Amino acid sequence: GIQVEQSPPDLILQEGANSTLRCNFSDSVNNLQWFHQNPWGQLINLFYIPSGTKQNGRLSATTVATERYSLLYISSSQTTDSGVYFCAAVIQGGSEKLVFGKGTKLTVNP
Amino acid sequence: DTEVTQTPKHLVMGMTNKKSLKCEQHMGHRAMYWYKQKAKKPPELMFVYSYEKLSINESVPSRFSPECPNSSLLNLHLHALQPEDSALYLCASSPQPGTSFQFFGPGTRLTVL
């Protein structure tokens, strides 16, 4: 089945710093989503981005489908950005199963 | 209404109890999902309902029994669970199966004693 790999597994930043999280996937995908899971467990949708670039405030994401990777950019990080960031993908031509990467745990210190 | 709701938020049950988790969405979505998430792990798919019919069962033990009474409601019936079933149970929905954006509920944190 599809493999979804995220890097780095852990990231510690000072408030105000910028960061880039990466997601590699092994097959062509129909659906690529980025989520932020807060400390209470809520999975918050950040982006639905099977290809192209999108921006939402301090966050932006780019997916290069032909090269099978996606990047999540966080600028001017805040302590509330802390949590685990997951990317997840649905394989093209496969079932409707959304496969998650193992996540990147982000800690933003004041 | 653009959200997925789940009840209860927390549940503690014994191994001989029968309980149910409930998930509801009023966005007209035709696919609904149950995921299980253990601590420090990503969510893992359990079941998928497409147009109110079970389309994927990821080899989940029979002590978990899903039910989709209508297009807005998804239940997960629990019976004779084990302590290792303690986890966060997440429900999600999407407009169409497979290719579209999945919206997640806040989850039910289950503890089995």
Quick overview of this protein structure:
The complex is a heterodimer of chains A (110) and B (113). Chain A has 110 residues and is mainly beta.
What does it look like?
The complex is a heterodimer of chains A (110) and B (113). Chain A has strands spanning 4-7, 10-14, 19-25, 29-37, 43-48, 52-56, 59-64, 69-74, 83-91, 98-100, 104-109. Chain A is mainly beta and 110 residues long. In chain A, the strands form 2 sheets. In chain A, strands 2, 4, 5, 9, 10 and 11 form a 6-stranded mixed β-sheet that branches. A 5-stranded antiparallel β-sheet of chain A has the order 1-3-8-7-6, with no helix packed on it. In chain A, strand 9 (83-91) and strand 10 form a beta hairpin. Chain B has no helices and 11 strands. The termini of chain B are far apart. In chain B, strands 2, 4, 5, 6, 9, 10 and 11 form a 7-stranded mixed β-sheet that branches.
Topology (SSEs and partners):
The complex is a heterodimer of chains A (110) and B (113).
Chain A: E1 4-7, E2 10-14, E3 19-25, E4 29-37, E5 43-48, E6 52-56, E7 59-64, E8 69-74, E9 83-91, E10 98-100, E11 104-109
Parallel strand pairs in A: 2-11
Antiparallel strand pairs in A: 1-3, 3-8, 4-5, 4-9, 6-7, 7-8, 9-10, 9-11
Chain B: E1 4-7, E2 10-13, E3 18-25, E4 31-37, E5 44-50, E6 53-57, E7 64-70, E8 73-79, E9 87-94, E10 103-104, E11 108-112
Parallel strand pairs in B: 2-11
Antiparallel strand pairs in B: 1-3, 3-8, 4-5, 4-9, 5-6, 7-8, 9-10, 9-11
